[in-house]
Amino acid sequence: MKDKIRFGNSSITYTISKSKRRKTSQIIVDSKGVQVQTPLSKTNSEIKKMVTNKKEWIFKKRLEFQDKKNRKRVKTKTKTLEYLERRTWKLASKIGVKPSQVVVKKLKSRWGSAGKTGIITLNEVLLKTPPRIIDYVIIHELCHLKIRNHSSKFWSLLYSHDKKFQDKINWLELHSKELFKKK
Ligand SMILES: [Zn+2]
Questions:
Q1: Ligand 1 mean position to 111 CA, how many Å?
Q2: Percent residues over pLDDT 90 in the chain
Q3: How far is the CA of 82 from the centre of ligand 1 (A)?
Q4: Is 42 domain-assigned?
Q5: Is the pLDDT of residue 183 over 90?
Q6: Residue 158 φ/ψ region, left for φ over 0, alpha for ψ in the -120 to 50 degree band, beta for the rest
Q7: Alpha-carbon gap, residue 4 to 16, rounded angstroms
Q8: In a domain, 104, yes or no
């Protein structure tokens, strides 16, 4: 069963699990939440008292787990930035072009660009788009290393590497407002 106590402006919810075999009580705080393991004889109000006595400790412990989760999220983010880079090199060798450098960063209004010196720049907002969209933007910019403009030659080169590119252009147009809205 579940119960909770107040702690300042927030509350602490905990799960109670009673066991015949238990002789002592124990409070466990982990990523799943707060769990109180007690002998069968313990009443719920006794348990509440026990949790109340330990509330500062529980609260601190819970914060630690949230921090850990946040750190994990940051780690995942750098991994995906690397993903954009790795994906670019992979597609570049498939297409047969060699960027001088691949840069992933925040861009104000573009998905990506291909610089004169061969630098491919990608907007990190792409991380919020599906893989097929990421691939399209990368392929688009890589094709610019061969053909700088948007001539029909360019589009047929693009077509040879991505038969469904028009779908992706439509997707990007549909979503550009929301993706560029925040920073
Ligand atoms: Zn272009």
A1: 10
A2: 74
A3: 23
A4: yes
A5: no
A6: alpha
A7: 10
A8: yes
Which domain CATH number covers 130? 3.30.2010.10
pLDDT for 68-77, tens place per residue?
777 776 666 6
Q: Pull the structure tokens for residue 166.
A: 């028009």
Residue reference for tokens 């750098």: 78
**CA 136–ligand 1 middle distance (angstroms):** 11
pLDDT at 76: 65
For residue 82, give the 3-state DSSP assignment.
helix
Helix (H, G, I), strand (E, B) or coil at 67: helix
Inside any domain, residue 67: no
Q: Are residues 41 and 82 in the same domain?
A: no
pLDDT one-digit tens code per residue, 1-48: 999 999 887 889 999 999 999 999 999 998 888 999 999 999 999 999
Containing domain of residue 137, as a range? 78-181
Higher pLDDT, 171 or 71: 171
Q: In this predicted model, which residue has the larger pLDDT, 68 or 145?
A: 145
